[in-house]
Amino acid sequence: MEYVERFLEHSAEFTKEEFIELLKLAGNEAAVKRLADEAVRIRKEVYGTAVFIRGLIEFTNYCKNDCYYCGIRRSNKNASRYRLSEEEILACCANGYALGFRTFVLQGGEDPYYTDERIVGLIRRIKAAYPDCALTLSIGEKSYESYRAFREAGADRYLLRHETATEDHYKSLHPKEMLLTVRKKCLYDLKELGYQVGAGFMVGSPGQTLEHLAEDLLFLRKLQPQMVGIGPFIPHHDTPFADEQAGSVQLTLFLLSVLRILLPHVLLPATTALGTADTAGREKGILVGANVVMPNLSPVENRKLYELYDNKICTGEEAAESREGLSRRMEAIGYELVTDRGDYRE
Description:
- Helix 5 (about 115-130) links the parallel strand 3 and strand 4.
- The protein has a 6-stranded parallel sheet with strand order 2-3-4-5-6-7. The protein has a 3-stranded parallel sheet with strand order 8-1-9.
- It has a single domain (about 15-340), classed as Aldolase class I (TIM Barrel, Alpha-Beta Barrel).
- Helix content is about 45%, strand content about 10%.
- Helix 2 (about 15-25) packs across helix 9 and helix 5 runs parallel beside helix 6.
- The chain is built from 14 helices and 9 strands.
- About 45% of the residues are buried.
- It is of the alpha/beta class.
C-alpha cells in the first residue's frame, strides 16, 4: 500500500518504476478500494454525478490500415464493407438530437473516399443544423493541414488512441508502415490546433507488460489530453490475434481509477469494450471514476458490420432503447445521464 499512498500524494512525480509497482496491486482488494474511493471523490468534485452521453455514428468500415488487432483491417476479406451517405449521417444526428444527445462522434476507418473536402462539408452541415452540439471526429492519422481544415470547419474534439506508448510494442501490433512517432505527432498537432483531444490504449493487448502500461501513463501525463479511452483488448476471429487472450476487466477498472487520479479533469469513458467484456462493465467503470458513455446512433443494420472485435454489445438496439436502458442503469448506481455537451472542465 506504500505505492498507493505515495501515488495519491505525488502522482505528478511518479516514476516508471513506481507505476510498475502500483500496477502490481491491481489484484489487491485494499489498494483497489482505496484508489476507487479517491477516484470517485475527485470525479464528483469536478463533474458531480453527471454522466455525459456521446452519440456514436460509425459511418464507414473501410480502412486503408492493416492493424493486427482490428476486425476492419484492410486484409480482412470477410468484412462486409459499407459507407453511410451524408443524408444517413444527418438522419443519425436528427435521431440523436431528439433523444437529448448534444455530442456526436463521427467514427470510421481511415477511408480514402472521405477526402478532406467531403469531411469538411459534412462537419459544416452538422454544425449548421446543430450549432449547440459538439462534434467529435475519430478518423485516424491525418496531416496538420487536414486537422486544421476540420477544426476551422467546426470540429470540436478528436479521438485518436495511441494504443501503446512503447515503440517495440507498437511495432508488434501494427504493420511496418505505421509508426508510433507519427501517431504521437498527430496528437500534439491536434492539441496545438485547439481540439479537445482524446488518446488511449487497449488493456491486455498481445505482448503488453506492466512496463508498457507504465509508459502509457507517463505519456498521458505528459500529453495532458482532455479525454482518455481505454478498454480491454478483445480478439476478433478474422485477425492475426484471433487466438490471443482477452484483456483483464479487473486491470482495466484499476487503470480507470489511476487515470482519474492522474488526470483529475479528464473525460473518461466507460467504453463499449468494457461493457462487452463484462455485462455490468459500464456501471463498474462509472463506479471507479469514469464519467462518459457512448451509445450507438448508427443505423442498426450497419452496426454488426463495424466489428472491431468479436461480440460487440448493443448492435441490435434502437438508439432510444439504448439511451433509456443506460439512463435506468446509471440511476440504479446513483448517477444521472445528462443532456449536455459535456465539455472538459479546466
